[in-house]
Predict the 3D structure of the following.
Amino acid sequence: MKVKDLLAHGFVAKALPDGDRDIDGVYIGDLLSWVMGRAQMDNAWITIMTNMNVVAVASLADTSCVILAEGVDVPDDVIATAEAKDVNVIVSDEPIYETAVKLAGLLSNIA
């Protein structure tokens, strides 16, 4: 599944500089140092964190996208930095668990 394909399933793009990026797994976490050491390349990373460090961690971990759950607001400077650093940022209005279940279902349908 490509990141841009999420948009047809109720997810909203806040920054989509590389929408053709493949998603091949999911990582969930809010402790940035933990995510840096454990998220895999091309994972979709689900979090509720919206500070600038999320973009840096997503870039370092080379995740396919950051999915911000719970409908959290994304500051404009974070969006601008994500665009500049080619980090896809997607928002889900659903809680983290429901976001993860939905994403797992989408990924299992293409496997």
Remarks:
- Strands lie at 12-15, 25-28, 43-47, 65-68, 89-91.
- The chain has four helices and five strands.
- The longest helix spans residues 96-110.
- The two ends are 9 Å apart (CA to CA).
